[in-house]
Design brief:
The complex is a heterodimer of chains A (296) and B (392).
Chain A: H1 2-31, H2 39-58, E1 62-63, H3 65-89, H4 99-121, E2 129-130, E3 136-139, E4 142-145, H5 146-168, H6 170-180, H7 182-187, H8 192-217, H9 225-239, H10 244-264, H11 270-284
Parallel strand pairs in A: 1-2
Antiparallel strand pairs in A: 3-4
Chain B: H1 3-34, H2 37-49, H3 51-64, H4 74-96, H5 107-123, H6 128-150, H7 155-175, E1 185-186, H8 193-215, H9 218-228, H10 230-235, H11 240-266, E2 268-269, H12 271-274, H13 277-290, H14 296-315, H15 320-334, H16 338-355, H17 358-368
Antiparallel strand pairs in B: 1-2
Helix pairs in contact in B: 2-16, 3-8, 4-8, 4-11, 4-13, 4-14, 5-6, 5-7, 5-11, 6-11, 8-11, 9-11, 13-14, 13-15, 13-16, 14-15, 14-16, 16-17
The chains are: A mainly alpha (296), B mainly alpha (392).
Chain lengths: 296, 392
């Protein structure tokens, strides 16, 4: 039983990261109406930005917690710019066309980015070593690695900031307006093109920030992106499109299910189990657990 | 973002757009000069009227190549691969282009066919022709089960669910013992290269013939109706589930035939190559490049794109997928209707002059898909032939 509790804790810790990635994915889906198949590549790029910043500044991929965390805002900033430019130059060309064209453009971006990354940085996995004096906390028979806890809190914080931004600020309100009705938003003076690009930038930024955390607790490699895109999709469908709390719950749930699968069966079945669950859910409850009747 | 950097980004973006337009517009002009509406219309009409004759002549010419100098080796391998990709692209298009269900998981059937054939031939000493048929039937059953689940979904949901099926199938074959795990299977005793050349060609010709025939029957029209408006097709009294499942299973059958032949042709399979998500994007790109929803389009696209991939592979190994990615993006933005679709678009410009603007407006509503419409709708609605008969 203690083992199961440990798996659940591990799952929740990782799940928050999945959730934050999925929130970015859901944001583009909801606002720009694009299923961004290159979203996982933004996670990958964020991880590499953090990694290379550390290597450039410190000299190798290891650092104290403060130094490592200082690279997260850099990853966020760089990925914001990348996302903004991708939307303005490429994705904007296919908005409002067939869903299939938008899928292809983003998949084309995904392949090109992934393969360029392999060319530039080789396919070897890399990781950032964060040195803690005492790497984990033990309470009630549970072991919690400190770095995972920090990453968990970081991912929750990123999600919360994004949520508050969307709900409280003026440009956040513009984003929600464009999501509801781009034409009406344009009529009241919202720059729709800019707002969509801003959304894409924010979505990539949160993915990039999480990517930096992933480089610290797991590892990164150029081909990791597709799995994160798929996880985001599972989570978003689970939680309901356009629902940030739904994505958060979905992410924590997916993390837990995956860790339980790894612990009780084998790590090589995680994908099959999560997709099996997704298929069941799509049949039973196509709108997701927290769906607000958003029409497809 | 501060306004100064915002302006800089803004001007950089418009410069990029101008550069893109500067490259693209002259190409468009040259194409239009090469293909005036009359010629485009003639090409479409002739190929449509003499479809069977064209298919027969092309088949004979290609089948005769090994007798007039095409020897086993590099060029025969490339030719076989061109047939292989044509089969895959055409199968994808039957569901993706004709029926409007963009599958990102067709390669799952390829993998099932490839593994079934390899296991039967290697571990159970079944003859290749028998294994080929059994693999096809197995994929048919598999497609029936998967189709019952995923064909309930539409658009992006369908696309990602099928991608999930593909990756799950890959993971399962990596974990099972019968498939040889992640190291895969090596097949040494295989038929000659010429045999594969003819098997691939035969499967392709049968498939082109079948799809061409179906596109002229009620079956084909119902598929197109499902793509255009599934609810309307249902309300016309068609059992759309039956039609789309049938198309899906047919596509799976041919994809599995291609996969089964490929496993022996390649003499080696593993989960990474048999369930290849990148190939899945390639075949979608091929179909789109040639013209989704047409018979000739996917084949033209497969030959064109695979030729480019082979050339890039020879000149700069390792860059071929980057080139594929860039081509996919460029084609989707510049030629969303592909080669055949673009010819049809040029041909329909003649309709515009002959019958007024009805065909043009029809055109715009199709490509814009409900976005901002730039063409104003004229009052009259097409001529005696009805508005714009540009849809294959």
């Amino acid at each position: 039983m203690a083992a199961v509790a440990q798996f659940v804790v591990n799952g929740l810790l990782v799940g928050a990261l999945f959730a934050a990635v999925a929130v970015g994915f859901a944001l583009i889906w909801g606002v720009v109406d694009i299923i961004n198949l290159a979203h996982g590549e933004m996670v990958m790029l964020g991880g590499y930005v953090s990694y290379w910043t550390l290597v450039t500044v410190v000299g190798d991929a290891a650092g104290s917690p403060i130094v490592a965390l200082a690279t997260v805002p850099i990853a966020i900033a760089v990925l914001f710019v990348v996302g903004y430019i991708l939307q303005r130059t490429l994705v904007a060309q296919v908005i409002g066309t067939d869903v299939f064209l938008t899928l292809l453009v983003t998949f084309g971006m995904s392949i090109a980015i992934q393969q360029l990354a392999i060319r530039a940085w080789t396919a070897n996995p890399r990781a950032i070593q964060v040195g803690f004096e005492d790497p984990s906390i033990s309470t009630l028979g549970l072991v919690v690695p400190k770095m995972k806890l920090v990453a968990f809190l970081g991912a929750i914080a990123l999600t919360a900031v994004l949520y508050l931004y969307l709900v409280r600020t003026r440009s956040g309100r513009a984003i929600r307006a464009v999501a509801q009705n781009p034409d009406a938003a344009a009529l009241v003076g919202v720059d729709v093109e800019h707002t969509r690009a801003l959304t894409f930038g924010l979505s990539s930024a949160i993915a990039g920030g999480v990517g930096a955390f992933i480089a610290m607790i797991l590892s990164i490699q150029p081909q990791m992106g597709l799995i994160y895109t798929l996880k985001s999709f599972v989570i978003v469908v689970f939680g309901g499109i356009g629902s940030i709390p739904g994505a958060l719950v979905g992410g924590l749930l997916l993390g837990t299910v995956e860790e339980l699968t790894t612990g009780l069966i084998s790590s090589s079945w995680t994908l099959a189990v999560s997709f099996g669950l997704l298929v069941v859910l799509l049949i039973v409850k196509p709108r997701g657990l927290f769906g607000q009747g958003v029409s497809e | 973002m501060s306004s100064a950097t915002g302006d800089a980004v803004e001007s950089a973006i418009s410069a990029a757009r101008r550069a893109f337009g500067g490259v693209w517009r002259p190409i468009g002009r040259v194409l239009r000069w090469l293909l005036p509406p009359e010629r485009a219309r003639w090409i479409l009409d002739t190929s449509d009227r003499h479809g069977w004759a064209l298919l027969a002549v092309a088949t004979l010419v290609v089948a005769a190549l090994p007798f007039v100098g095409l020897q086993e080796g590099f060029y025969m391998t490339i030719a076989s691969e061109l047939f292989l990709f044509s089969i895959l692209a055409l199968s994808w298009d039957l569901v993706g282009g004709q029926t409007g269900y963009p599958s990102f998981g067709n390669m799952a059937f390829f993998g099932v066919g490839a593994y079934a054939t390899a296991i039967l031939v290697k571990d159970h000493a079944v003859a290749f022709p028998a294994a080929f048929v059994v693999a096809g039937l197995l994929a048919l059953v598999f497609a029936g089960v998967i189709g019952a689940i995923v064909l309930r979904l539409r658009g992006g949901y369908f696309a990602i669910a099928t991608l999930g099926v593909l990756l799950t199938a890959q993971q399962v074959s990596r974990n099972l013992e019968i498939t040889g795990g992640s190291s895969g299977k090596i097949l040494l005793e295989v038929p000659s290269q010429t045999t594969f050349y003819y098997v691939f060609l035969g499967v392709l010709v049968v498939e082109v013939g079948l799809v061409y025939y179906l596109s002229k029957t009620r079956f084909g029209y119902v598929l197109n109706a499902i793509r255009d408006d599934e609810e309307k097709a249902t309300s016309m009294g068609f059992n759309t589930t039956y039609y789309k499942t049938a198309a899906w299973m047919l596509a799976a059958l041919f994809t599995a035939f291609a996969g089964g032949t490929w496993s022996l042709f390649n003499t080696f399979i593993d989960p990474q190559t048999a369930y290849n998500a990148a190939w899945n994007v390639e075949i979608i790109a091929m179909s789109l490049l040639g013209g989704a929803g047409t018979v000739a389009g996917p084949v033209i696209g497969a030959v064109g794109l695979h030729a480019i991939v082979v050339i890039v592979e020879t000149l700069a190994t390792g860059w071929q997928l980057i080139v594929v990615g860039v081509i996919v993006i460029a084609v989707v933005i510049a030629f969303p209707r592909g080669a055949v679709g673009t010819v049809a678009e040029y041909a329909s410009e003649l309709e515009y002059y002959r019958y007024g603007g009805g065909s043009q407006a029809e055109d715009a509503s199709e490509t814009d898909g409900g976005g901002e419409r730039e063409v104003t709708e004229p009052a009259d609605i097409g001529g005696p032939n009805g508005p714009g008969v540009d849809d294959e």
